[in-house]
Amino acid sequence: MADNQSAPPPTGDQQQQQWGQPQQQWGPPQQQWGPPQGYPQQQQQWGQPQDQQRGYPPPPPQQQQGQWGQQPQQQWGQPQQQQWGAPPPGPPPQGYPQQQWGGYPPPQQQQQWGPPQQQWGQPPPPQGYPPQQQQQQWGAPPPPQSGYQAAAPPPVAGPSQTYTGPAAAPSLGFIPNQTSPNYNPTNDVEVIRKACKGFNTDEKALITTIVKLDPLQIESINQKYTADTKKQLYSLIEDKTRGSLEDGLCALVRGPLNFYVWLVDRATKGMGTKETFLDLALLGRSNADINAIKKAFQAKYSRKLESVVSDDLSGAEQRMFEMVISATRTEEAAGVNPTTVTAEVKALHAATEARIGTNETEVSRIFIKSNDATILAIATEYERTYHQPVESLIKSEFSGHQKEALLYILRGVQDKAKRDAELIEGTMKGLGTRNEELAFRLITAHWIPGAIPAIKVAYNRIYGKDLVARVRDETSGDFERLLVAILNK
């Protein structure tokens, strides 16, 4: 599991800030965004970015972190809220617009914008967790860029125009070498070094120290350890631990960006592609995060990510991942264009049920190039028009990895917590537990604020079991302690 090279040079520290910034009142523009008379308040807006990981609730205020690749949720007419993971007031990272790095909204904020007056169906609200989550409404303008001065709402794309929206900044942990300015890693580095001294490793101390850290704190520890020892921290973990515990701890100390870079290499190395890891690393990510992975991958392995993935795949599957790696998705800030939805619904039908044989590349284009809000709108309108759920359509028209990849994307925009709970259960179902995949799914969820609690709720709702108890039954020893610590953080 050894890595060959460190991440690319730093692009500068970003400050973390907590909730409780001075509040500014931003009222909605008059006579333009108001709710049409007589419409009930709905839970999900068309024409507005899907700013949050679907199905995941906001974490407690002291744990708010910028969410990866997503724009912040901020509502017109609501006080502007600052979240952890957002840069302080001032210029954003070079090359990116002034916006917060995503994150979860404070609880109990409800937007009250009416649905647009249009003839086709309304997308349903995301299923499941939680009621206290901020509810977005139809017809609301895209949120202002929380963390900086609020901007005017972008135009709503009409039949004769396409609004692509501002590019999202990289997610928390995706700017190389970015550290936490409010965290001193000295004590934790010393605990880790003491735990690894001699012949007997103190695995409990390693687990307790590493699991509690967020991505920027992990990077702070990495830099401190390297400055003190001229070595990489993951190399120490590899030397002092074994098996599934080693897999999990090394994933944690790499942090999000370097882990996903390593995971793509792991997925494409050796005989056969490990499609599950490729999906986990690349699907559903923002353009900014894909570009960060591409740059870091080439810096580490001296090969272009596009070449590695293309060499490992073929046919429609290869073309699908070439589109993913091109990082040309419609930005979430663009919201939903009703004309685009109508056209894509017709294109999806023409590529599947309306012909003999499936145009797999065209279906992939619809799912890969659209933002989350548009995918959800397409799925809703397709079922309304053709009386066929898109999930059933995918299952009937596709097989193998491409089917699983499309379902991963679709289920992620519908209910991410439910999707991830089912995938986690899948690693433990039947004879033998897929320990490496189980660890990676829990660790990547652990990096998303609010994801683990939401997954636990969804898991209990689906299976009638406690996820922690289930993991305890399927694992043992220090590996069990690691996973339980992640679930109980």
UniProtKB/TrEMBL annotation:
<comment type="similarity">
    <text>Belongs to the annexin family.</text>
</comment>
<keyword id="KW-0677">Repeat</keyword>
<feature type="region of interest" description="Disordered">
    <location>
        <begin position="1"/>
        <end position="186"/>
    </location>
</feature>
<dbReference type="GO" id="GO:0005509">
    <property type="term" value="F:calcium ion binding"/>
</dbReference>
<dbReference type="GO" id="GO:0005886">
    <property type="term" value="C:plasma membrane"/>
</dbReference>
<dbReference type="GO" id="GO:0005737">
    <property type="term" value="C:cytoplasm"/>
</dbReference>
<protein>
    <submittedName>
        <fullName>Uncharacterized protein</fullName>
    </submittedName>
</protein>
<feature type="compositionally biased region" description="Low complexity">
    <location>
        <begin position="96"/>
        <end position="121"/>
    </location>
</feature>
<dbReference type="InterPro" id="IPR018502">
    <property type="entry name" value="Annexin_repeat"/>
</dbReference>
<feature type="compositionally biased region" description="Pro residues">
    <location>
        <begin position="86"/>
        <end position="95"/>
    </location>
</feature>
<keyword id="KW-0041">Annexin</keyword>
<feature type="compositionally biased region" description="Low complexity">
    <location>
        <begin position="12"/>
        <end position="55"/>
    </location>
</feature>
<feature type="compositionally biased region" description="Low complexity">
    <location>
        <begin position="63"/>
        <end position="85"/>
    </location>
</feature>
<dbReference type="GO" id="GO:0005544">
    <property type="term" value="F:calcium-dependent phospholipid binding"/>
</dbReference>
<dbReference type="InterPro" id="IPR037104">
    <property type="entry name" value="Annexin_sf"/>
</dbReference>
<dbReference type="GO" id="GO:0012506">
    <property type="term" value="C:vesicle membrane"/>
</dbReference>
<feature type="compositionally biased region" description="Low complexity">
    <location>
        <begin position="130"/>
        <end position="139"/>
    </location>
</feature>
<dbReference type="Pfam" id="PF00191">
    <property type="entry name" value="Annexin"/>
</dbReference>
<dbReference type="GO" id="GO:0001786">
    <property type="term" value="F:phosphatidylserine binding"/>
</dbReference>
<feature type="compositionally biased region" description="Polar residues">
    <location>
        <begin position="176"/>
        <end position="186"/>
    </location>
</feature>
<dbReference type="InterPro" id="IPR001464">
    <property type="entry name" value="Annexin"/>
</dbReference>
<dbReference type="GO" id="GO:0005634">
    <property type="term" value="C:nucleus"/>
</dbReference>
